[in-house]
Amino acid sequence: MNRVKTKLFPQWLIHLAALTPLLWLAGVFLIDGWGINPIQYLEKRSGDYALVLLLASLACTPLRFITNSARFTQFRKPLGLYAFAYAALHLLLFVGLDYGFTWDEIIPLVLNKTYLWFGLAAFVLLLLLAVTSTQGWQRRLKKNWQRLHTLVYLTGGLVVLHFALSIKGNIFKLSGEVFWPLISMIVLSILLLIRLKPIRSALRRLHR
Amino acid sequence: MKPDDLHKEITPEKLYFSRRKFLALVGTVGLSAALVACGITTTPDTGTASTGSLVTDTPVPDILTPLDTITHYNNFYEFSTDKGSVADLAVNYKTEPWTLEIAGLVEHPGKISVSDLMKTYPAEERIYRLRCVEGWSMVIPWNGFALHKLLSDVGVKDSAKYVKFTGPDDPANLPGQNSAFYTWPYTEGLRLDEANHDLTILATGLYGKILPPQDGAPIRLVVPWKYGFKSIKSIVKIELVADQPPTFWNLLAPDEYGFYSNVNPNVPHPRWSQATERRIGELKRRQTYIFNGYGEQVAYLYDGMDLVKNY
Ligand code: HEM
Predict the structure, then answer these.
(1) pLDDT digits (tens, 9 = 90+) for B130-158
(2) Which amino acid residue places its CA nearest to atom 34 of ligand 1?
(3) Which residue range is the domain that position A39 belongs to?
(4) How would you classify residue B138: left for phi > 0, otherwise alpha for psi between -120 and 50, otherwise beta?
(5) For chain A, how many structural domains are there in total?
(6) Which of A119, A151, A152, B130 is the most buried (most CB within 10 A)?
(7) Does B271 touch chain A (CB under 8 A)?
(8) Residue-range domain boundaries for chain B
(9) Which residue in the set A98, A176, A179 is minimally distant from B252, CB to CB?
């Protein structure tokens, strides 16, 4: 598989990149203690990092098409797992730090807010994908493993919707704080479109 | 009830005592370091704020939010959507001289400079809770005067039913106004009886000092029983009108931000919990009270109205 060896992106760089946000958070803490409303700050940042890492994971296959280097395929799984880790942190901050594990408030809250349904659905899918990401599960599920893991596309869509609906304003009318949700929607769309047959074979022809 | 009865005198000693007690409490919690770093230790500048009047108590004591916190956590989209950046971006914003236009259905329309306004209507201190629609709150010692004083002096005509407020339209100096995703300038509105209520003030100061630009200098509205966004900042025009005026957030997302926008834990918001709130600087959420705890004073304004429909 890994015929084209590029030294450009050693594996440790991925771990470093994925852990940099934690260093960044530590730095910001030393400077201003995460601002005036630290809980909301952490909640938002952890969500951002989870989304970015998920998009990075989804970018691996398109990068393989574009560069014709199988190397990128190896980054797909660690990036996906890091996305799950930040999403778990995000959820823990919401449930524990923000709402102090007051389940009688959290459960109705999650049921009442559309954007939290999408967040929850995305988290459940990420959990499922993370658990079944091992070689053992890959062997056990055989062909179905591939099929199961196409759910990551759906997960990307759910997260972007969660984000787009979590802002003040209206994404459908392009009014309010829609800039970053819009950017993430566009990036996700590009990453998914590149996978379509015609675009894929066009890219393959380029490399011949 | 006479307006004077509304103000429950509260001595600063009591205030600062409860604040110290609160700090001791926070100190025992693991996250204290983060909270200390987020401004809680900043001693509020008491300035002339010697006799505070805290309008109505909630069961959990209300403690003044430090000045540094109030001036560094601002929802002021004319500058930025990032609450932490507004103070820096607004530092050079020119708010002096500033004229306020009074227009519409009044006997004496015209323009008044804010410095003249401040001479005509001496500032009194009003300590109010501020509840943001995003689910956080503060306790702020404003300096200002009741809007009804100005309204009665300019002579409101009988045909006027609403008051419309307009903010500045100045994209050259307000970077956020270059975003096409919003309908500038900021506009807000109140029903005439809401505007005439004694709790409704035009604020020109904070902690006994002149209002800093990030908090809406030189003159802003404060309506403590409504979500914070109703309290429009840096007002350039007050207009008496016959019909309900359009308002900034209502134009952006009408199903989320109603014209009334009274604080109401029973009207859910699609994003935030309105049942509870985070008092800035505290770890545990607090219960949110209907009309932000000012129901005794203002509930009569809405007698017979369906507050869920008229959110
Ligand atoms: C049950 C699961 C989840 C819950 C309860 C949840 C909760 C929240 C909440 C409360 C916010 C709004 C924060 C605020 O505006 O103050 C938010 C925003 C966000 N969440 Fe989640 N979330 C969940 C799952 C996820 C997942 C799985 C991802 C990504 C993989 C994610 C990514 C984001 C992003 C990107 C934002 C926007 C942050 C910003 O405004 O910059 N969330 N989430």
Answers:
(1) 999 999 999 999 999 999 999 999 999 99
(2) A47
(3) 2-207
(4) beta
(5) 1
(6) A119
(7) yes
(8) 3-302
(9) A176
